[in-house]
Structure formats: C-alpha cells, structure tokens
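In this notebook, the sequence line spells out the residues, with the fold written below as integer tokens. This is how one looks.
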Amino acid sequence: MRVLLQRVSEASVTVDGAIVGAIGRGYLLLIGVGQGDTAKEADWLADKVVGLRLFADAEGKMNLALGDVGGSVLAVSQFTLYADCARGRRPSFVGAAPPDQGKALYESFVAAVRSCGVTVATGIFQADMAVALVNDGPVTIMLEREATVH
C-alpha cells in the first residue's frame, strides 16, 4: 500500500463540477492499494500518517503532529501510484489491486484514520476527480508498506 502525503493549507476534490470533499490545514493523501495488501498495511499506514510530526512548533521545527494542530485529511484513491513505467511508453497497472479490494482497503484506511480522532474528507472511489491543493512548504512524503508473504 502506498500513500503520497502532501502537507496543505487547503485542498478539495471535485466530481462532476461539485466539491465532494474539502479541508483546510492538514494532509492531502493520495492512496494506492497494491496486489496482496491487507487491512494490516492500511492500519499501519493510518497510524504512521496520524503520528508524523510535519507541522512547525513555536521554534519553527517540524515537531507537531496532525492532532496537535487540529488538522484534517483529504483522502483520495489513486491506483496510478502503482504505475510501472519500466518498459515502453504506456504504464502498466498490474501491480494495483483489483477495484473491489482497492475500495475495501481504501475505506479501511479512512476508517482507521477517523478512529484516531482525525476529521477525514474523501473523494469518490473510481470517479474522475479534479483535485486542488495549496501545498504548504512544500512538504511531500511517500509512505509505503508492502504486504509481506508468510
């Protein structure tokens, strides 16, 4: 599972001309689910996102977490995070989970973040979305937790 985190001062997602999700200060998260991912990866990443200290304290150091600043999350599904561009000019997406698995784990991730007391707005799974953001910093971090095979 992959999460591209962008610290934002505001972000929104629009579908068919209507805003379906919007936040002020917080994180825009683009979330990709890979083949074999489980709720274990979703829970780990949710905990990591909520606990990251990416906001400035009184001394200007990144020392405050999302909850410390009253931040929110805008979570957007993004299967293209699993694009494989190694061969040719057209990306392959075979590493992405099938839609039913992707949706279930995306929703599991969102629920896990909410269970930490964070307000979460979302896009619409599999919709054609227009995402707008004001990247704060800019701060952009890629988080990844691949499923382990036992």
Observations:
- The CA atoms of residues 67 and 129 lie 27 Å apart.
- The mean pLDDT is 96.
- Residues 99-114 form the longest helix (16 residues).
- The radius of gyration is 15 Å.
